[in-house]
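Please, structure for the following, as tokens.
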Amino acid sequence: MCFLGLWPVDARATFSVVAADRSAGLVGGAGASCLGSGLSVSVIYGAVPRAGVVHVQAELGGPLRMAAALDGLRAGRAPELIVSELTSPDFDPGFARRQYLFADLQGRRASFTGLETGAFAGDRTGRIDDTEFAVGGNLLAGPAVIDGLEAGVLLGCDLPERLIEALERAAAAGGDRRCAPAAADGAFLRVESATEVLLDLRVDNRVDAIEVLRADFDRWRANHPCPTTVAPPAGTPAAGEGCAAASLAPTGAWLLFAALVRRRRTTHTALRCRRV
């Protein structure tokens, strides 16, 4: 069981993704935010590596919500049930200001965005191949940030790549609106198996946090290349294999491929959001 960092009094304006790859037995998450000096967005991450992963974000106020989320994952409860417990007024009178993302290794996922989280706020869940994912954020530049998170998950060659791609595409869509023209000043990415942490990257208090995170990721990737990929479904355009080919293929082709893959092989809940 793991959760990262110390708990700030107020951690808002976050965009993030959690994912669980059943075939590889991996769970992980990545997130970015505009928090300022002395705080780290990595505090939103928690995992029970043999079970699942959670992000607890939007006005974090203490470890109790994270502990309850991890207890639910450890007990094997469905993420939707855990969310219902966390958002009970008896458990948390301030639940309308919270946001939760869950994915587990039993093929389940869930998300929640309280009605009092800062606009623009929203979440989405889905599946690609054997990977369950949930994306969400609050105080965002707009709904395109959620779209960018999902697009990145669909494009990655493996779980670590899906996570970094999600952050980059969300940042390109504007990210945290408080950091404009930057997208965030802190970012992290973590992937773990039942026995070890495969990847643990964190960048704090940098206006180029996501760019630095990508550079750190690329150094790791150089020694941990993409696995051999499975051929896309019949009828989808050929875009090469693995991350190397993806980086060389035109962006438009990969976006078209992602859209087709999403239609054929993903399911997701409706975007839940609120404007003020």
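The first strand starts at residue 2 and ends at 3. The chain has seven helices and twelve strands.
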